């Protein structure tokens, strides 16, 4: 079964070259990080992946990243989507480079996959060959290690994670028990790049079977 990609859309981006001290305090910025870059997008997990890429391409750190409850279909406004991310850096140029890197991942690399014709049933089985500072910290691994980012609807996510963990020598480094803010679930798996890829493939294959025969034991 060939799954069709579901790409996220960047809805809004903005830069604050020199953030106000009160906001800097709330975001717990270091003294060297005075510039902010903000981005919203229609799919949260792609947003988190994109922010990790930003930390690899520029001297920035992720200072705020949140999913919105119930997802993009119930967004608070036309530019809200499903996710907001904020990065901080020492200069506007570094922040601009980070946002550009995030946009590039969203537009050309990371994507969900549709299990049905209208895309209402989907999964995310994305392998990152070399993590940046952001996802490395979440997964508790060294920066630059591989990672499988696996997300699906609730039952499918649990079934798929089990298959992924059994398929390769990987560790469950972060667990997202359903329901998440967007009513999905999943986790971050770590291991060698080939093991992460094998785990992602097993995750996808197992969920395809569920989609084909949801009431079969």
Automatic annotation (TrEMBL):
Annotated keywords: Bacterial microcompartment
Cell compartment(s), UniProt: Bacterial microcompartment
Domain BMC circularly permuted: 1-112, 113-217
Pfam families in the record: BMC
Top-level division of the source organism's lineage: Bacteria
Gene Ontology cellular component annotations, sorted alphabetically: bacterial microcompartment
NCBIfam families: microcomp_EutL (TIGR04502), PRK15405.1 (NF011934)
The protein's name: Ethanolamine utilization protein EutL
Organism: Aneurinibacillus aneurinilyticus ATCC 12856
Taxonomic path: Bacteria, Bacillati, Bacillota, Bacilli, Bacillales
């Amino acid at each position: 079964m060939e799954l069709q990609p579901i790409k996220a859309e960047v809805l809004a981006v903005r830069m604050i070259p020199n953030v106000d001290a009160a906001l800097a305090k709330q975001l717990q910025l270091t003294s060297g990080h005075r510039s902010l870059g903000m981005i919203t997008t229609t799919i949260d997990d792609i947003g988190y992946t994109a922010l990790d890429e930003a930390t690899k391409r520029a001297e920035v750190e992720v200072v705020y990243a949140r999913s919105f409850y119930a997802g993009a279909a119930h967004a608070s406004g036309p530019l809200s989507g499903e996710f907001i991310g904020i990065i901080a850096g020492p200069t506007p140029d570094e922040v601009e480079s980070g946002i550009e890197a995030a946009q590039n991942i969203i537009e050309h690399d990371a994507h969900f996959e549709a299990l049905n014709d209208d895309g209402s049933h989907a999964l995310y089985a994305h392998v990152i060959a070399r993590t940046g500072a952001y996802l490395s910290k979440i997964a508790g691994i060294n920066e630059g290690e591989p990672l499988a980012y696996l997300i699906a609807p609730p039952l499918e996510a649990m079934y798929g994670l089990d298959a992924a963990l059994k398929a390769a020598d990987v560790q469950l480094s972060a667990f997202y028990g359903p329901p998440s803010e967007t009513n999905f679930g999943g986790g971050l798996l770590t291991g060698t790049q080939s093991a992460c890829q094998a785990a992602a493939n097993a995750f996808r294959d197992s969920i395809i079977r569920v989609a084909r025969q949801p009431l079969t034991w």
